[in-house]
Fold these 2 entries.
Entry 1:
Amino acid sequence: MSVHDANRLREQIATLGKSLFDRGLTMGSSGNISVRLDDGGWLMTPTNACLGRLDPARISRLDRDGRLLDGDAPTKESFLHRAMYDERPQSGAIVHLHSTHSVAVSCLPDIDPCDCIPPLTAYYVMRVGRLPLVPYHIPGDPALGDAVRGLAGKHSVVLLANHGPVVAGKNLEAAVYATEELEETAKLYLLLRGHNPRGLTPEQVAELEARFPRD
Ligand SMILES: [Zn+2]
């Protein structure tokens, strides 16, 4: 990958990070973004960085073994990203947020841990699909990485209980779109609780999955 391409990706991380922050999808210094590079390494947002005010030049660049090559030290949640990438060679970018409605769903006592949100809309099925819940772990616990690794082969999106979603996409734009789709569908799901909503039927979901296969 040329320096020019890496710099373009740094700019894209900062632009999309600010967009997510400005719309209230992430708060304070929470949330992190990474992009896989052609050499097997990654760009990753730094620890304690606010996604609304990223300096592209200070974004962490890691080699394929996770060693810091330049920029600030990476997010302490980098192990979540590694766990997803290890199982998903087809994924080029990951977004992890503590987005309010998705976190709210992750705290509900009665959700199906194999499928946290029902298929309410076609775009949710196309961009997120079946969403598993990863049991709660204290921040930084390496067992959380192992739990994510166990699901990431089959799922491009997982929801960490009482924490937030980890979303992989073929590129950064796709990962951001899927994150937004999840957050809006979580909001819809919460709005509809108690209303006995009519979701898509298994046949409608199967038709979407056949026509629009996810990565
Ligand atoms: Zn987190």
Note: Residues 60 and 123 are 32 Å apart (CA to CA).
Entry 2:
Amino acid sequence: MGQLNAGVIPVTPFQQNCTVLFDTDDKTGVIIDPGGDVPVILDVLDRNKILPAAIWITHGHVDHVGGAMELKEALGLEIIGPHIADRPLLDNVESQAQRFGLAEARNCSPDRFLEDGDVVSFGSHVFSVLHCPGHAPGHVVYFNAVAKFAHVGDVLFRGSVGRTDLAFGDHETLIRSIKEKLLPLGDDVGFICGHGPGGKLGEERRTNPFLT
Ligand SMILES: [Zn+2]
Ligand SMILES: [Zn+2]
């Protein structure tokens, strides 16, 4: 069994961190949040000889799911996640795209929705699913306890938190998700987020102005 490794591909004008998680030995992996620029994602997978097992989605915003159906068709993969509460967003990816002036985004039909406490995996790497509403009602976070790693999507950023002024957003719910679900995972847990640099949960617990 190899190590869990991650590569980030900024996609769409929102510079969303499409993330490839993969095993350093056998190169199996998953693609999290292919929001767009699918040819770029395919090229990165190809050049690094990644063997993709599935597409995982954190939430239904266009910059995270706009390219999911195209990537699914290109690679023959299932789309897993988010929580079904994001179905109103997933069914309206194309209208979200029009609002933000993005081309080529498509509505998204996941093969499987996730619930809080579900377990997903690829190869020998196992992730627990945390339902963390607030930024989006069906937002999920993927947590790997062995590697002390979480992909937190747009729930938490370094020094900030997800915006809640979009449809279905709720700031108090978001802060509760972070304090009750994310921070208890441990100060030493590293995270990748949907935009910008990742960090450590402990650093956010101590210094993030939205949490203190
Ligand atoms: Zn978002
Ligand atoms: Zn985003």
Note: The CA atoms of residues 36 and 42 lie 11 Å apart.
